[in-house]
Specification:
By secondary structure, the chain is α+β, with helices and mostly antiparallel strands. It contains six helices and four strands. It is 67% helix and 9% strand.
């Protein structure tokens, strides 16, 4: 399987060039075999790309922009879907390729496989061993109920503690915010007070200067 990346080598759009470099650079970092197909210098490549991009993936004008990514003749997606897959560590699934062993995507796939198998096994065991067919003495049932209630009470205690811690943190955060607001208000009041003192001092100096001028004139 060959990954095909349709690019425009002579695109005048800086955004398109950046997207193309992002796709190519990431594929090279993953050591994925791919082929670059230029639609700017090859009319056949441009027509093939336009014809094979699904209609629902085309923009309103019907002309898809590069980069467009294919696995052989199967459409993978454009830059936006590629970027989303990269953010979710699902690039190999996006490309239709098996993830290499040891990669994050392979680990995620293994975890999902284990979860699916475990769930299936539990369902199978439940079908093979229905509990309804076994009669349990009343005393044992009561004992199990009491144990379950005890476990429930024990589980509720940590939850209440967590809630109390969260409420304490929230109260502390609110106090800190109020303190910050008070500090800011105090700073503003101090600045205003200093400005007022400067204005008063300036007025007094002006009055003294005027009185002195009058005395000299007399």
């Amino acid at each position: 399987m060959v990954i095909k990346v349709f690019l425009a080598s002579s695109s005048g759009s800086t955004a398109i060039k950046k997207k193309q470099q992002d796709v190519v650079g990431f594929l090279e970092a993953l050591k994925v075999d791919y082929t670059q197909l230029d639609i700017a210098c090859n009319e056949e490549n441009r027509m093939w790309m336009r014809q094979n991009v699904p209609e629902e993936k085309k923009p309103a004008n019907g002309i898809p922009l590069p980069p467009q990514i294919f696995n052989e003749n199967g459409y993978c997606g454009d830059y936006e879907t590629f970027f989303d897959a990269k953010e979710d560590n699902m690039v190999y699934a996006f490309l239709g390729l098996p993830p290499p062993p040891g990669s994050k995507e392979a680990e995620l796939a293994d975890e999902e496989h284990v979860v699916e198998n475990g769930t299936h096994a539990e369902e199978t065991n439940a079908e093979e061993n229905p509990d309804d067919s076994i009669e349990v003495p009343v005393e044992e049932r009561n004992g199990n109920d009491e144990a379950t209630e005890g476990e429930t009470v024990g589980d509720e205690a940590p939850a209440e503690e967590d809630q109390a811690v969260e409420e304490t943190d929230e109260a502390q955060a609110e106090e800190e915010e109020e303190q910050e607001e008070e500090d800011l208000q105090s700073e503003e009041e101090e600045e205003l007070r200093q400005l007022e003192e400067q204005d008063e001092q300036g007025s007094e100096e002006e009055e003294e200067a005027e009185v002195q001028e009058e005395e000299e004139t007399e």
